[in-house]
């Protein structure tokens, strides 16, 4: 454990972890798990909830978008559907993000981690101006890493796996931040198959060809794109439910932070 003790190091900065995951990937359970792991490590953490539509948070958030905007009211006022309501709520909140940053700044010297929970509908954060503004603002100030949470049991077919990896890849290129792929739900299915597919290009290509009717050329080019993607990222397998894999995960976060410090 090499990070400085809380409140002691001059110029100490927390690592900001932006948690992104498709609906059902277990993002909320994962947030709860890493939050409690940080407590176990006796390291101070700070939680920011950016999901205006989350019903109940199983962890306390220091800053909660729901305290500022009521997305159901936003839906009514602007005559929007649920996704439009969530997006507009996030936009309204983003106009006040300087205040959020001020609050984080005040606490930053005593914090080791700032955890950001993003809306359950992934594209509302990853493909919106607000998501980009929040990400860029944080990354301009603090060592910031992205944790992309994957539903491992739902990614065991090569075609689904490839789609999920291409999506992760698009987020990497949009955020341009150090990236940790988090294979969640390893209590149900181990992520070993994924590690094999990520390291053995031919094994994956063979599996994919067997599984889909894609033309060989497309499959090969996709595999090459992904090979490049895998080179620059870190992988961890966890179970948000049992807590397995937390040490490996936090090692990956530390390495991602080091990458930020050398590259950004
Ligand atoms: P939001 O989009 O933020 O609402 O979160 P989410 O839907 O991605 O995740 P949530 O934590 O609600 O989890 C979705 C489902 O996956 C729930 O039924 C969880 O109990 C389950 N789940 C989450 N993590 C794990 C895990 O590590 N193992 C198993 N077996 N189930 C999990």
What does this structure look like?
It is globular, with a radius of gyration of 19 Å. It is 53% helix and 14% strand. The chain has helices at 27-40, 65-68, 71-78, 82-94, 97-107, 122-126, 129-141, 158-175, 192-199, 201-211, 216-231, 246-263; strands spanning 15-21, 45-49, 63-64, 113-117, 144-151, 179-184, 234-237. The longest helix has 18 residues, at 158-175. It contains twelve helices and seven strands. The chain has a seven-stranded parallel β-sheet with strand order 3-2-4-1-5-6-7, with helices on both faces. Mean pLDDT is 92; it is low at 1-8. It is an alpha/beta fold and 264 residues long. Bound molecules: guanosine-5'-triphosphate (GTP). Guanosine-5'-triphosphate (GTP) binds at residues 21, 23-29, 51, 54, 120, 184-185, 187-188, 239-241.
């Amino acid at each position: 454990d090499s990070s400085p003790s809380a409140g002691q190091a001059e110029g100490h900065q927390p690592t900001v972890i932006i948690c992104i995951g498709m609906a059902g990937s277990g993002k909320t359970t994962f947030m709860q798990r890493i939050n409690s792991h940080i407590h176990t490590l006796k390291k101070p953490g700070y939680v920011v909830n950016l999901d205006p539509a989350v019903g109940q948070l199983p962890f306390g958030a220091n800053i909660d978008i729901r305290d500022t905007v009521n997305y159901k009211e936003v839906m009514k006022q602007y005559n929007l559907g649920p996704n439009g309501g969530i997006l507009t709520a996030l936009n309204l909140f983003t106009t006040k993000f300087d205040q959020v940053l001020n609050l984080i700044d005040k606490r930053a010297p005593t914090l080791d981690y700032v955890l950001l929970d993003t809306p359950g509908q992934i594209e509302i954060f990853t493909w919106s101006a607000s998501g980009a503004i929040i990400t860029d603002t944080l990354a301009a100030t603090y060592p910031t890493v992205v944790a992309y949470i994957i539903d491992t049991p739902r990614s065991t077919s090569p075609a689904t796996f490839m789609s999920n990896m291409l999506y992760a890849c698009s987020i990497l290129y949009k955020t341009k931040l150090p990236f940790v792929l988090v294979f969640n739900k390893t209590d149900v299915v181990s992520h070993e198959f994924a590690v094999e597919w990520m390291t053995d290009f031919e094994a994956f290509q063979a599996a994919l060809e067997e599984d889909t009717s894609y033309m060989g050329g497309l499959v090969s080019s996709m595999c090459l794109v992904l090979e490049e993607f895998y080179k620059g990222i870190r992988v961890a397998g966890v179970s948000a439910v049992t807590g397995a894999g937390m040490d490996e995960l936090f090692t990956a976060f530390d390495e991602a932070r080091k990458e930020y410090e050398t590259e950004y």
